[in-house]
Structure prediction request, 99 residues.
Amino acid sequence: MIATGTLLVASTIGALLVLNVLAIGTAIRSELFERRQMVFQCLLILLLPFVGAVLVYLVTRDPYRKIGRGYQSGFGADGDGSIGGGPMDGSGHFGGGDH
Prediction:
């Protein structure tokens, strides 16, 4: 019969392996990292199993993640990532004179 302590250790190791595999897959699929950065992210995951996986998740997560009924962005009330206001017509410039 398997001891309770052995089962707990085996399940913890299994959970960490699954977490590492998911984090490495996330780092590889991410477009945020260059090849060299991706290799370092994968090494971080392997050397620091739980901490490395959480760090990769935090770095690669989508800033426009779905929360409740709407989406939350990082900045601005418009949800477009901007900090300040701008033209309401979406033209990208304020107009009103030649500069």
Remarks:
- The chain is about 50% helix and 5% strand.
- The two ends are 83 Å apart (CA to CA).
- Residues 4-71 form one domain.
